């Protein structure tokens, strides 16, 4: 399970809306609790060097700086996020092909309905995705 604060969830949606029609992207830093839940402490928005509405690549310098900050905080890299400006919140064939870390969480923000963005989490192992529950703290 991925645990996000209301503000972390809001940050994901804000980044997706601000970047549209280009895909937003970034990293998720935090901790893993005793039950194995990934507790997101910080959302790290990064530049999409591809500047594309259909795919992304993160700036390596920004990735390095984000991971360095996570280590300084005593956190781990939990996964990444990106947006789908005009498609559902599910991994595309390219998302699956490029998912190399089976332990990572892959969060996708869909703006198919810009009034009600959809945020979903996934685990991707050897090209097969399974949805990972997202719990938002402060939301009933």
Automatic annotation (TrEMBL):
InterPro entries recorded: JAB_dom_prok (IPR028090), JAMM/MPN+_dom (IPR000555), MPN (IPR037518), VirAsm_ModProt (IPR051929)
Keyword Zinc among UniProt keywords: yes
GO cellular component: proteasome complex
Keyword set, alphabetical order: Hydrolase, Metal-binding, Metalloprotease, Protease, Proteasome, Zinc
GO biological processes: proteolysis
Keyword flag Ligase: no
Residue span, MPN domain: 2-128
SUPFAM superfamilies: JAB1/MPN domain
GO molecular function, one term: zinc ion binding
PANTHER family in alphabetical order: CYSO-CYSTEINE PEPTIDASE
Name of the protein in question: Proteasome lid subunit RPN8/RPN11, contains Jab1/MPN metalloenzyme (JAMM) motif
Taxonomic source organism: Propionispora vibrioides
């Amino acid at each position: 399970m991925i645990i996000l604060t209301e503000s972390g969830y809001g940050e994901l949606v804000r980044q997706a809306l601000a970047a549209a029609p280009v895909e937003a992207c970034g990293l998720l830093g935090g901790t893993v609790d005793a039950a194995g839940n990934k507790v997101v402490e910080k959302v790290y928005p990064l530049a999409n060097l591809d500047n594309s509405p259909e795919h992304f690549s993160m700036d390596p310098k920004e990735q390095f700086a984000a991971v360095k900050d996570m280590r300084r905080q005593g956190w781990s890299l939990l996964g990444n996020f990106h947006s789908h400006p005009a498609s559902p919140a599910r991994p595309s064939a390219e998302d699956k092909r490029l998912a190399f870390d089976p332990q990572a969480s892959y969060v996708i923000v869909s703006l198919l309905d810009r009034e009600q963005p959809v945020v979903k989490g996934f685990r991707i192992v050897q090209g097969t995705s399974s949805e990972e529950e997202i719990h938002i703290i402060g939301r009933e």
